[in-house]
């Protein structure tokens, strides 16, 4: 699969690109800086440099999506590191629109509902707004005429991957639920390759990832 990834410069996005490569896929990383593009090439990831200061971002995205099999929003709402930032009011909507225009049916959004303690402290009074932004981005994706999947992981960690998860349709992680970024990346690759759709919770568990999303 040729998979375009927004958030490829994040800890999760980088692991997702590695997982795709390990499975014989071609990750295309949307990046904002030339230095990021160079790092992507060194890691065998095909970079696509976006100019978010221009007025033709939709045209750029359509070029990036040409020939793609899927798009992954691995930056939560699309407003975190390596995202479209303030360039658009709704990165999720912008990506979905470009995917639909290009005939790219598969769309996966990683929706992190549970920031860690340090992030919660940093957000302070903005925590409620942060969580509302996550819910709004999810709703945008759910309203699209695409083969979409929203993956809700527990709090992401840098623990070694286990190769197993606990997945539940329409589930919402609870405080204390965790998932390693490596296992989350493999879960995204699995829902892509198996054509899984709908809303899924994924947290640390004991079911092999390749079997975890079968109802």
From TrEMBL:
<dbReference type="Pfam" id="PF13460">
    <property type="entry name" value="NAD_binding_10"/>
</dbReference>
<feature type="domain" description="NAD(P)-binding">
    <location>
        <begin position="7"/>
        <end position="193"/>
    </location>
</feature>
<protein>
    <submittedName>
        <fullName>NAD dependent epimerase/dehydratase</fullName>
    </submittedName>
</protein>
<dbReference type="InterPro" id="IPR036291">
    <property type="entry name" value="NAD(P)-bd_dom_sf"/>
</dbReference>
<dbReference type="InterPro" id="IPR016040">
    <property type="entry name" value="NAD(P)-bd_dom"/>
</dbReference>
């Amino acid at each position: 699969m040729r998979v375009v990834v927004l958030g490829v410069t994040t800890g999760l996005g980088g692991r997702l690109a590695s997982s795709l490569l390990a499975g014989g896929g071609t990750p295309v990383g949307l990046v904002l800086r030339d230095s990021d593009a160079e790092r992507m090439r060194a890691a065998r990831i095909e970079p696509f440099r976006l100019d978010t200061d221009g007025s033709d971002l939709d045209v750029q995205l359509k070029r990036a999506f040409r020939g793609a099999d899927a798009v992954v929003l691995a930056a939560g709402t699309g407003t975190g590191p390596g995202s479209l930032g303030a360039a658009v009011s709704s990165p999720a909507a912008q990506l979905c629109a470009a995917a639909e225009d290009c005939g790219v049916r598969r769309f996966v959004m990683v929706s992190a509902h549970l920031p860690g303690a340090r992030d919660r402290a940093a957000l302070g009074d903005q925590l409620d707004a942060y969580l509302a932004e996550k819910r709004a981005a999810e709703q945008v994706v759910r309203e699209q005429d695409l083969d979409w999947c929203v993956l809700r992981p527990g709090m992401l960690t840098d623990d070694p991957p286990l190769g197993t998860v606990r997945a539940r349709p329409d589930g919402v992680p609870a405080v204390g639920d965790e998932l390693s970024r490596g296992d989350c990346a493999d879960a995204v690759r699995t829902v892509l390759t198996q054509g899984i759709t709908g809303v899924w919770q994924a947290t640390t568990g004991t079911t092999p990832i390749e079997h975890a999303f079968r109802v």
